[in-house]
Structure formats: C-alpha cells, structure tokens
Amino acid sequence: MKRALQxxxxxxxxxxLAFGTLGLFTGVTMYIPLEAATPKLDSQFRFxxxxxxxxxxxxxxxxxxxxxxxxxxxxxxxxxxxxxLGRVAAWLVSGSPGVAFxxxxxxxxxxxxxxPWQSYVARTSAAA
Length: 128
Hints:
By secondary structure, this protein is mainly alpha-helical. It has helices at about 1-25, 40-60, 70-95, 100-110, 115-125. The protein has one domain. The chain starts with a helix and ends with a helix.
C-alpha cells in the first residue's frame, strides 16, 4: 500500500512540475500571444508556475517517508483541491477551458480522496 501511494504521488507530481517549469520559461504565451497579455498577467502566470514547481518538489520531498508526513500531506491535498475550485470558478465565469483542463480539474478535486489512503499507510506503519 505504501509503495502504491508513493508511486501515485510521484506520478501526480509530474504534471505541476512539467507545466510549472514550462510556464516559468514561456510565461503566458503558453496559452495566448504575448501581445494579448499584460505584463501583470505574465508576471502572475510565471509566479503561479513557480508555485506549481514548488508544490511538486514538496510532494516529492515527502514521498520517501510518506507515512510520517500526514499534516503536510493533508496540506498539499488541500492546496491542490483549492486550485481545482479556482478552476471551477473560472469555468463558471469564463466558460469551459476544454477537455484537457476538465480532466486536470477533476483530478485536482479528487486529490483529497488520497488522504484516507495516506492515513491508512501511516497507521499500519506505526503499528509495525
């Protein structure tokens, strides 16, 4: 169970790492032409891309001892869930961002279901 959870978190961490790194280097031009972007929008986009990279690094940092980082695990799950809620709000205000973003949003909203899994791994590890 622990190994499966570790692999799941490692794989899920690839998405914010990849898109965050790409966003840091390309900025908002990943999605819109530079002339359509304001400096503030590009700055905010690159800042949030840095947060994505940081979130992935935090998740990968706790993977080896995932059973000992229950509080941090829950916090990371909450942050990802809040990001998903932000996407839902944007969807309601601006319209559908497309199938790929819909899938990402679904994953982000479902991340909290990993919390009981991690809690189980923590309990069984403590009992061993």
